[in-house]
Amino acid sequence: MSDKFDVIVIGGGPAGYHAAIRAAQLGLKTAVIDAFVGKDGKQALGGTCLNVGCIPSKALLDSSKQFYNLAHNLPAHGISVENAKVDLKTFIGRKEKIVKQFTGGVAQLFKANKITSYFGTGKLLGRDKSGGNAVEITGNDGEKQTISATNVILASGSVPIELPFAKFDNKFIIDNAGALELDAVPKRLGVIGAGVIGLELGSVWRRLGAEVTVLEALPDFLGTADADIAKVASKEFGKLGLNIKLGAKLTKAEVKKSEVQLTYNDKDGDHDIVVDKLLVAVGRRAYTDGLLAEDSGVKLDERGRIIVDEHCHTGVDGVWAVGDAVRGPMLAHKGFEEGMAVAEWIAGKAGHVNYDTIPWVIYTEPEIAWAGKTEKQLKEEGIPYKVGSFPFAAIGRAVAMNEAIGQVKMIAHAETDRILGVHMVGPGVSELIAECVVAMEFKGSAEDMARIIHAHPTLSEAVHEAALSVDKRAIHKGN
Ligand SMILES: Cc1cc2nc3c(=O)[nH]c(=O)nc-3n(C[C@H](O)[C@H](O)[C@H](O)COP(=O)(O)OP(=O)(O)OC[C@H]3O[C@@H](n4cnc5c(N)ncnc54)[C@H](O)[C@@H]3O)c2cc1C
Questions:
Q1: Using CA positions, which residue lies closest to atom 17 of ligand 1?
Q2: Does the global pTM surpass 0.90?
Q3: Which of 80, 232, 389, 397 meets the CB 3.0–4.6 Å disulfide criterion with 457?
């Protein structure tokens, strides 16, 4: 096999493997270099998302939800189960099987698309004599080799941010990967950061019985979500037993006698608490360690992210970057779209990423989902708007499921009626947001949505009624 390619992708996570498969589909000779080592010591493609992110966290969320429902939802259906127990080995083992299925699936897709896969660390060296971009690979066995391509796509992803005074030891102070691997339910779990990862993984262990305290430095709960949605979510998380402390800044974490002693500061001064495990989930940083030779020409911004233009181009001939390693939300599907668009731009096609309609989902109970602008953003931007909302309490299907919590809120332009944002909290909203994204992508209005037939009885009727409510004509509530 020749070591000259049309496209080399560094990083086989969601952004990188989408870029590679699309490039191969378009007839480009493609290679992927990925360094992620699976549990068996072999290469595990799929990056953070498949190995220690989206998929394993959703597997544990689903298992823990089933367990929680036994005591908290099924009795209302007249079903009771006594002495329900969790076998943690099976619980974690099921997640691992799912991870393996999907990481192996990416390897098979590479084979099917004739993509050459290298196991090791890639470093962009710069232009070689043939005018291509040279990449040095250090194999996981330490062997080095150099390959080159007309185009290199950097997709090196992100890693958890470590607090200098609460360094990960992966025993007591853990990151997201550690929180997916616990071999016993901790009696007391501390979580630093009430963001998506903290809330999702905190929910998993709370549902299994851990006392969970979440410390969030910011004064507002879920500040990026719509305020009405965050309010409902905060109340429901309280009912679950997540003890969320806002404006609480961790200042010290010390492991002593198999416990973690924490000190945090809030408006009332310093407080001490003791936990058995501490999950630090204060965000992620772009990962570019060892990725770029000094003279590669690729630049990083003040947060360490690879600088790119609106077409994910780095400004260096033939060098592109996508996914968590560049600006924009750190979401797998944002990386998917950037990866595919870059492959299309390389092939001379019209790639496209609409950053204004990226859906956000938090897979807690209730789920939270949104796309587009919040009321706060529209106020700040001086855009006139009108709002419609509808509660799941008045949706027959939600009541039948005994999950009648939350609401759908639709925001449309006051004059044109164009949908500017949709915000939801409640059952199944991770799926309901998709139709709103479609409507927004097609520049639809609230009236368009109101005139689209939604099956009865379904949860999607909440979207329909919210759209009707924008024009004060919801049927199943007062307007
Ligand atoms: C617990 C958790 C839950 C999440 N849940 C969701 C969710 O539900 N939905 C969602 O959209 N997002 C979720 N995310 C975020 C999502 O995982 C990331 O946005 C996504 O994985 C980013 O994709 P990426 O391809 O840019 O990078 P990554 O997935 O980080 O992949 C980068 C890959 O590149 C490799 N690499 C890095 N440098 C080199 C190098 N020099 N040479 C070779 N290989 C290299 C890494 O080993 C890795 O395999 C979650 C994240 C976490 C941690």
A1: 49
A2: yes
A3: 397
